[in-house]
Amino acid sequence: MNAAFAKFFAGLWNAPIIVTPYIAAGYGDAAAALLALNEQIPAGSNHDRKLVDAWARQTRLDHWFETKAR
């Protein structure tokens, strides 16, 4: 998840050096996969749970918690 945040801000600030250590450590593909989920799920608080669940599945943390509908 840290690699995804670094990749996001590296793009936002046009500063690729921010994500370089994560790529060197082998987390570039994982970061890209998480950020791809952000593109697939609509923005807005109504979709926050979908995004959290998607990230949890991608990182295999989905069995640690359960989201509930509002």
> How many distinct folded domains?
1
User: Structural class of the helices, strands and pairings?
Assistant: mainly alpha
Q: Given the structure, what is the number of helices?
A: 4
Order of helices and strands: HHHH
What's the average pLDDT? 96
Which percent bin holds the helix content?
A: 55-70%
In whole angstroms, the N-to-C terminal distance is 26 Å
General description of the model:
The chain has helices spanning 2-12, 20-24, 28-40, 48-58. By secondary structure, the chain is mostly helical. It has one domain. The longest helix is centred in the middle third of the chain and has 13 residues, at 28-40.
Explain the layout of strands and helices.
Blueprint: H1 2-12, H2 20-24, H3 28-40, H4 48-58
Question: What are the defining features of this structure?
Answer:
70 residues; mainly alpha; single chain; globular
Summarize this structure briefly.
This protein is mainly α. It has helices spanning 2-12, 20-24, 28-40, 48-58.
